[in-house]
Design a protein that fits this description.
Structural class: alpha/beta
Low-confidence stretches: none
Oligomer: single chain
Distance between the termini: 70 Å
Number of strands: 6
Shape: globular
Largest sheet: 6 strands, mixed, barrel
Number of helices: 1
Order of helices and strands: HEEEEEE
Strand order of the largest sheet: 1-5-2-4-3-6
Length: 161
Amino acid sequence: MLLKSLENSIKKFWFIKFYPYLCNMNINLILSLALLFLPYEIKRGQLVLQEQIKGIKPVVVTATTYKANSSETDEDPHITASGFIIDMDNPYKHRLIAISRDLKRKWKFGTKVLIEGTGKHDGVYYVRDLMNKRYRKRVDILIDHKDSQQTFKKVKIYKLP
């Protein structure tokens, strides 16, 4: 009986001692598979977007970047014109844009758009803010505080369904 109890204790100890290694092996396997299929998923996502914008005429605009601070926005930089609250620690995660007021007639707040022609800022964004009334045919992409300001000409924007 004592021998059986001792054997069970050893089995439990072995499992507890090596459990983190077993978990890490599973995580490593999962990460390896994810990295293996990641290019396929990215390509598939791009194909889906290309299919969605097929037949949609893009709006060509000038795109600039802005940061959520009071010198570039109003006195409440963490709240957009639509009432959306920005996470000030990581504002870029929201993927939001401000549009000039002439484009407000085409796209309402919450509209999902695809931006092409900005390099690393290409992708899907949501209309959540308005620019100053002096601007025409322009969008502003919200970026993180550590990123640098940029301007892009002849940017194509597609309204996504």
